[in-house]
Amino acid sequence: MFSINLALPSILLLGFAQIWPMIQGITYSFQKGVMAKPSQGWVGLENYRTVLRDPAFWDAVQFTIVFTIGGVVLSYVLGLVLALALVRNIPMRGFIRVGLILPWVVPPIVGMNSWRWMLQDQAGAVNQVITFFGGQPIFFFNDPDMTVVAVIIAKAWRSFPFMLVSLMATLSSLDDNILEAASIDGANAWKKFWSITFPQILPMSAILWVLMTIWSVNDYETPYLLTNNSANARNMMIYTFDTSIFGLNGLGVGSASAVITLAVLGVLAYFMLKLQKAGGNEG
Amino acid sequence: MSTSTMPATAAGTVVDTHRARANRRRVLTWGKAVVLLLVMLVINMPLILTAVNSFRPRLDIMAGSTLMPERVTLDNYRAVIGTTHYPEWFLNSVWVSLVATAVVLVASGLAGYSLSRYRTRVNSVYSNMLMVFQLFPLVLSIVGLMVLFVSVGLTKTFVPAIVLYIVMALPFCTWMFKGFFDSIPRELEEAARVDGCSSFRAMISVVVPLAGPGAAAVAIYAFLLAYNEYMVASAFLKNPASLNTISIGLRSFFQQNTTEWGQMLAASTLAVLPPLVLFLLVQKWMIRGMAAGAVKG
Hints:
heterodimer, A: mainly alpha, 0% strand, B: mainly alpha, MetI-like fold, BP-dep_ABC_trans_perm (chain B), MetI-like_sf (chain B), membrane (chain B)
């Protein structure tokens, strides 16, 4: 009994602020309603139909997919390359590692404002560098494609420290003997990575990919703050948030889109738990 | 090795070879360190440029960014502190974050202790649920809770945001605590039990004092999460303006047609300082907790 009593405050808090609103949200998705007057009658699947017919929802889905894949790939590659370099004992290793984690520590509002300022039209630092080398300035926030590129870069910037730290922990737990044996046999660095190191970090990498995918789908702040809620960078979270709070019959339609997102995330979370049971335990 | 062709005694050759190899290795590792240092600087360029340019006059900033400021001024800082509500935003952020942190510390400490010491069925279900909670879309909770808080008239207070910050931090903090408690041997409490302490007394008087550094890392994690957060703040702390936190306040520098870049850069630099200092204080513990969180679950 003592063990349950200890967890009771947490269980009550989570029940109140996570489980209860979730059940509420699911019931709202089958009703007509707005924030101030939530339940105005049952409408069956009407809200789901409205969401699935809304072109803005599909734009959000498309952006979410591109943003997620781009962000996960870029942050993983960056995190892995730096983890491989930092796992060896080099001078100033601790200092460099702490410095590389800073983008994860600073408030997103500050990080995204800084990027927004660097990517500004003419006066921005990035365009100054581009024009210095004779290139044409890129208008990141006017060109829809470049807006997506900018958001992906900013997302990778915020996320790679988590990849770096997790991969460094995994890499440092590996057995060096196999690598040494391979060096004596004359294997080069690339070959050693592909055939020895990568298979060993694959289970952990898979967990990180799924985890980062879920966090990217849930990420409201990066696209919203970087682009100042540009229509070219609206993901499913922003769609749900805006529709629920400001939309016509907003609560019902917004809740329906949230439930759809929840279903997608549920599938991902299921894989995540499977992967952790399968491979994460030895980590 | 080229040294092997040099005319020398056998012993000298071996020493030379070793020395040359050691030298080459040293140059190589230093080279790597310098490259990584440069990479670190490039990655942090947005933050570095923000801090450096916050000391430049407004007009110079508008004209373009150079790495080294040619004229230095504190005008932007004076404007931020004197003419904007920055001090108020800062105090609001600190207040909201401190209250959330205090609750998280107690709730996740107790739950983490339970998960570490008791392997009951409730605990294994609870542990899995924590994992799933961390993956839930926050928007769903925000919308559901907003309806509730509107109906009970709490929307114009700090309460909704604090509640959400608590549940956002709970899962991860519970795991961090579980990890720290796992590293404290059970025998200590068993000895206290033998001496006649209750389970609760044994936990309070034996384990809690030992959990110090772990608790500091958890507290700072929870504090930073609340201090840095934007979405919840935009739902609950935007109106009235007296509730604005730093995240909300910093967006007010973007006006309809112009942006006060000078003030924004200065305010951003000020806003970064507390998280930076707190993180540096407990970085070792926090990095360990971060890595464990993804693997263990």
